[in-house]
Write a structure and sequence with these properties.
It comes from Geomonas oryzisoli. There is one protein chain. With 787 residues, the chain is α/β, with parallel strands linked by helices. 44% of the residues lie in helices and 14% in strands. It has four domains: 188 residues, Rossmann fold (3-Layer(aba) Sandwich), CATH 3.40.50; 196 residues, N-(1-d-carboxylethyl)-l-norvaline Dehydrogenase, domain 2 (Orthogonal Bundle), CATH 1.10.1040; 178 residues, 2-enoyl-CoA Hydratase, Chain A, domain 1 (Alpha-Beta Complex), CATH 3.90.226; 131 residues, no CATH class. Strand 13 and strand 14 form a beta hairpin. The model has no long low-confidence stretch (mean pLDDT 96).
Length: 787
């Protein structure tokens, strides 16, 4: 893999600054350059001449969502301007252009500032979202053209996984592959290889899908809110659906991409669909560009002190109050967890929503099928582009497989719609055989293996090849090679119930007898939503306190089994890691987290205390830190207490270190697909000289004095109206547990004693009416109740 120690980002607009931020996230030095402001021309004041880049850097600290993993990473970015600092491009291993999306502006920048200063081995790339890479390359010398390519980040670069790479005709294939490896491993990007066609892959298909949605909306007389209810999660797409997505990216940006498509796609058989509707063009002219403007297809206004959601009516050009559309087919689809089955359920409906969904999906899938091999060589690149760039749950060809290619073709032809010939010839686009996934190659009509990126571990493929060592309904133990087993959760939202706890114990025993170590990881959309709240709610409703006590005890025993196993256990969390999922990670020997990990002990939100050893673990960490530093335990304990009492959730894996949920030696992986591999390597390294721990028996309790201090602060917060009386009650209970109970400071206690305190307090909270109300509210509404 090519080493990139320093990168120049040319252009400090919103996108350029965000790319610079993500490079800094990866520990790469960045030189961020932009124009000298008009008022600073002729000035010798460097601060004035660097103003554009400096302001962009300052804005990163306030950006939402945050562009940087941690505010201090901004120090990795150095600012400058084109006129003074272009010679410094010689210091850089990669120069990426992110200026105005205008062919002539980009060419002029290359000629005047880049070509004269580019190091002889440096990569040059453009972040263009759709301009021709070969037209851009025309102004470059031959030796630079072989090092030139498009590297198209999607916005926001930190969060959007997609990276579209497009070579020019003279790009060195070896350099292209090397760069792809770097973008994958160091920046965590999902790389797809696109052709030099307008708007490449994702925006070509995504823009078409939006345009087809508009056409059928007008034809069927639907409203924008009805369309968004149908084209969101019911259709296995994000909640932003169609028009909320346009508001998010900017309606002016959508218009620019559509205009670009219409202008350049002169040979496209559906070119007219890309013609921008006059009502949309009028919105942009009036400043209605979405969230960044005066409004978009949706906006909120205060009416009599109440926030009201308004919807734009393209026919009248006016806003009206939104209604909540109700469609039987959408309601049925929402009950289905599996995205493919959800779409099938929606399409099987008999109402207007089902027909609308079918028409838009039919047109989009057929259009996509016709674009192979025009926009990409294979279906894998297209599917990945839509999943990683538009957050579709399934790519277009994966959807065709789910619907059944033959069934899809038959229904389309009943509508009188022509489909590409090859759709009549293929049974499915993907198949899995003996632990390998194959795709149907359209040009040569053969199945070829889907390549795994280096360091990628696919639990799905390992299971298909017979790698399952143990399994029940909620979890599996998978042999991932080299003596390491992986414990995988696969219940709904990966919640932790009896079957999960059973498999933790069984998986540990199997790993101890047959292996060197264990990794805890899964490939779900989130690591774990925590303990199964429904089971807790049912036990509370039935007054089954003995059963609940045994369940919590079983949870604690499973966590202690992880912590004191005879082999190293490494947790590899990603995405949401709530409550019991967090406790699972806390008891592992080490954590190797994906960079985008949002973890926290959030039980107070449902009126409970972390009782799977989470409160106990945070108490022990504070006590041991104080001892190691020969200082007072209070500051360490109060920080850990606040994390629990405020239900704090990390905004990145980096923040977990400051929160005390990750420790020195724990790792962070930017590439999602490498996370399990990296955790496996950590388990192997720990196994070499592994010494199992023993339960703590000589802990010095922080004591009731610290608890009293916390409670006095809670009283002040309640009196000031910052917390409710019930928040005060719950937070006081947590304070009693984390400080070791009603004992003097320094009293010797055990780990088991802290677990008993946790469990007793948990059961006490469960018996409270307001906790039961909080649990029910979370189950029904999906958000906390402040009662």
């Amino acid at each position: 893999m090519r080493q990139m120690n320093k990168v120049a980002v040319l252009g400090a607009g919103v996108m350029g600054a965000a790319i610079a931020a993500h490079l800094a996230n990866a520990g790469i030095e960045v030189l961020l350059l932009d124009l000298v402001p008009e008022q600073a021309k002729g000035s010798q004041d460097k601060a004035q001449r660097n103003l554009v880049a400096d302001q962009a850097l300052a804005a990163l600290a306030k950006s939402k969502p945050a562009a940087l993993y941690a505010p201090e990473y901004a120090a990795w970015i150095e600012t400058g301007n084109f006129e003074d600092d272009s010679p410094r491009l010689r210091e850089c291993d990669w120069v990426i252009e992110v200026v105005l999306e205008n062919l002539e502006v980009k060419k002029r920048l290359f000629l005047e500032h880049v070509v004269p200063n580019l190091s002889e081995n440096a990569i040059l790339s453009s972040n263009t979202s759709g301009l021709s890479v070969n037209e851009l390359a025309q102004v470059l010398p031959a030796d630079v053209r072989r090092r030139f390519m498009v590297t198209h980040f999607f916005n926001p670069p930190r969060y959007m996984r997609l990276m579209e790479m497009v070579p020019c005709t003279e790009t060195d294939p070896h350099l292209l592959r090397n760069m792809a490896s770097f973008l994958d491993k160091r920046l965590g990007k999902g790389v797809v290889f696109a052709k030099d066609t307008p708007n490449f892959i994702a925006n070509r298909i995504g823009t078409y899908a939006g345009a087809a949605t508009w056409r059928h909306m007008v034809e069927m007389g639907l409203t924008v809110e009805e369309v968004d209810v149908i084209t969101g999660q019911a259709l296995a797409r994000p909640k932003t659906a169609t028009f909320a997505l346009w508001d998010l990216v900017g309606i002016d940006t959508v218009v620019r991409v559509m205009d670009n498509s219409y202008q350049l796609l002169t040979g496209d058989d559906e070119r007219e669909l890309f013609r921008v509707p006059e009502s949309t063009r009028r919105m942009v002219a009036e400043g209605l560009t979405g969230k960044k403007g005066k409004g978009g297809f949706f906006k909120r206004e205060s009416v009599d002190g109440t926030s009201v959601k308004l919807c734009y009516d393209p026919q009248t050009g006016a806003y009206r109050e939104c209604v909540s559309p109700k469609f039987a087919s959408v309601g049925a689809a929402r009950q289905v967890d599996d995205p493919g089955a959800r779409v099938k359920t929606l399409l099987q409906g008999s109402d207007q929503a089902a027909e609308f969904a079918w028409r838009t999906l039919r047109d989009t899938l057929i259009y996509t099928a016709k674009r192979i091999p025009e926009i990409a060589d294979d279906v894998v690149n297209v599917d990945n582009a839509m999943k990683w760039g538009y957050n579709w749950d399934l790519g277009p060809f994966e959807l065709l497989d789910t619907l059944g290619v033959a069934s899809f073709v038959a229904r389309a032809e009943r509508d009188g719609v022509t489909v590409p010939q090859y759709l009549r010839e293929v049974d499915s686009f993907y198949r899995v055989e003996q632990g390998k996934r194959y795709f149907y190659s359209v040009p040569d009509k053969k199945y070829r293996e889907v390549p795994l990126t280096r360091g990628q571990v696919s639990l799905t493929l390992l299971k298909s090849a017979g790698g399952v060592a143990e399994q029940n309904a909620a979890a599996s133990l998978i042999d991932i090679g080299d003596g390491i087993f992986c414990l995988e959760f696969h219940s709904k939202m990966n919640t932790i119930g009896g079957d999960t706890l059973s498999m933790i114990q069984k998986g540990l025993r199997r790993s101890e007898s047959d292996g060197l170590g264990m990794v805890i990881a899964n490939e779900g959309s989130l690591f774990s939503a925590g303990a199964n709240l429904m089971l807790i709610a049912m036990a509370c409703a039935e007054g089954a306190w003995d059963d609940l006590n045994m369940t919590v005890k079983s949870f604690q025993r499973a966590m202690m089994a992880i912590k004191y196993s005879k082999i190293p256990v490494v947790a590899a969390p990603h995405s949401l890691v709530m409550g019991g999922g967090c406790e699972t990670c806390l008891h592992a020997d080490a954590i190797n987290a994906h960079a985008e990990t949002y973890m926290g002990l959030v039980e107070i939100g449902v009126g409970l205390i972390p009782a799977g050893g989470g409160t106990k673990e945070m108490a022990i960490r504070a006590i041991r830190l104080a001892e190691a530093n020969d200082t007072d335990v209070s500051p360490f304990l109060l920080k850990n207490y606040r994390n629990i009492a405020m239900a704090k959730v990390s905004s990145s894996a980096t923040e977990l270190i400051a929160m005390g949920l990750m420790r020195p030696g724990d790792g962070i992986t930017l590439a999602l697909d490498r996370r399990i591999h990296d955790a496996k390597l950590k388990a192997i390294s720990l196994a070499a000289n592994y010494r199992p721990g023993r339960p703590e028996t000589a802990l010095k309790a922080p004591g009731r004095g610290i608890a009293a201090s916390i409670k006095s602060q809670l009283w002040n917060l309640e009196q000031g109206g910052f917390i409710s009386g019930y928040d005060h009650y719950l937070a006081s209970g947590i304070a009693d547990v984390i400080t070791g109970g009603d004992v003097p400071a320094g009293t010797v206690i055990t780990e088991e004693y802290l677990l008993d305190l946790e469990r007793e307090t948990f059961l006490k909270f469960c018996g409270q009416k307001k906790t039961q109300e909080r649990i029910q509210h979370m189950l029904k509404k999906g958000k906390p109740l402040r009662n």
